[in-house]
Specification:
The protein has twelve helices and nine strands. The chain has two domains: 162 residues, Alpha-Beta Plaits, CATH 3.30.70; 134 residues, Dna Ligase, domain 1, CATH 3.30.1490. The chain has 335 residues and is an alpha+beta fold. The chain is globular. Strands 2-3-1-4-5 form a five-stranded mixed sheet. Strands 6-9-7-8 form a four-stranded antiparallel sheet, covered by helices on one side. Helix 1 packs across helix 3, helix 8 packs across helix 9 and helix 10 runs antiparallel to helix 11. Strand 2 and strand 3 form a beta hairpin.
Length: 335
């Protein structure tokens, strides 16, 4: 089989981290990919694209071998397991990275390999297809990617809509014109709390969440940044994780704003008697404070007093250590 990937053709890696990968480890993977190519595009929360060319000339190996080398480096340096799909299009590489098998790398070297790989997959495997779109195809007896690829484009457009029908049929045929856009991952910071014993006590859970909020808010203010989103991840006793993200009404580093948003996430999860093992809070899309909107004056005098108190608490904690001073109720017994 002759590869159609040569020094003139683009090669795309779709790199997929494990679901339990920490945000800082995701950044390490992005830095590692940057050693191979400047064209690295983060795909939050835990994936990335890398576009390479001239791999044989520059590295002396084909794209699949090079991807295997990068995977070994990720394991050896950081202990991070990644799966890498290698193809000449974004969508095909993304589909491949979800089906790498035990090797951790799936390399599709030419169009015949792409066709053999895609054709027998369930139609839900087409990158970007939604559940309703897959169900619509299945109602017409189209259960595989190959069946969608062989369908007349006019019929696909009637079932899925004009643009969606053309796009998804093209991806089923291994066609995707999108390239990789070099970008930086928005900055984030996280803090975690692990309970010594699995707990279902809502008071202890809320106390732990508030502790994390105070820690994160102080850290963001210390960097002179504001957060645009917060993510709350709850790890349950069975090992599963429930994660929710919410965008703040206004980018902020104030403890009160992060607290109210985080508690809305927690309340929305509606845990009753579920045993909780750990909590992680992530402040995302951090930007310089002067890039965010100015703080509006509130008509709530208590809120204004708390905001004026924040710099004082930050200075005390910076001098004497974290947890010396905090908003009332922040440090109820959470462990």
């Amino acid at each position: 089989m002759t590869s159609r990937f040569d020094d003139r053709d683009r090669v795309i890696w779709h790199v997929r981290c494990r679901p339990d990968t920490a945000p800082d480890d995701h950044r390490r993977i992005l830095d590692l990919l940057g050693e191979y190519t400047p064209l690295v595009q983060p795909l939050p929360p835990l994936a990335a694209l890398a576009q390479l060319s001239g791999t044989r000339r520059l590295f002396g190996v084909d794209p699949g071998e090079l991807a295997a080398r990068a995977r070994v480096q990720a394991l050896a340096r950081y202990g991070i397991d990644v799966h890498i799909g290698v193809a000449d299009t974004w969508s095909t590489a993304a589909t491949a990275s979800a089906r790498v098998g035990r090797s951790g790398v799936l390399y599709l070297p030419d169009h015949r390999a792409v066709e053999r790989f895609l054709a027998p997959l369930p139609v839900q495997a087409v990158h970007g297809i939604g559940p309703a779109q897959a169900a619509a195809l299945q109602r017409y007896g189209l259960h595989t990617v190959g069946a969608l690829a062989d369908m007349d484009e006019t019929v696909a457009c009637r079932i899925l809509g004009g643009k969606a029908g053309r796009t998804l049929r093209a991806r089923a045929r291994g066609i995707d014109p999108r390239g990789v856009t070099a970008a930086r991952l928005p900055e984030s910071t996280s803090a975690s709390h692990a309970f010594t014993v699995d707990t279902y006590d809502p008071v202890r859970v809320r106390a732990a969440v508030l502790d994390l909020v105070v820690s994160i808010a102080g850290r963001v203010r210390g960097r002179e940044q504001v957060a645009h989103r917060v993510t709350l991840a709850i790890r349950l006793a069975g090992g599963s994780t429930v994660e929710r993200t919410k965008t703040l009404a206004q980018a902020s580093a104030h403890t009160e704003d992060l607290r109210s948003t985080t508690f809305r996430l927690l309340d929305g999860m509606a845990f009753q008697r579920a045993r909780i093992r750990g909590i992680t809070l992530i402040a995302e899309d951090l930007r310089p404070a002067d890039e965010g909107p100015g703080t509006q004056i509130s008509l709530d005098p208590e809120r204004e007093n708390r905001l004026r108190l924040e710099p004082v608490l930050d200075r005390i904690n910076a001098k004497y250590g974290r947890r010396v001073a905090a908003p009332a109720g922040a440090y109820l017994k959470a462990s």
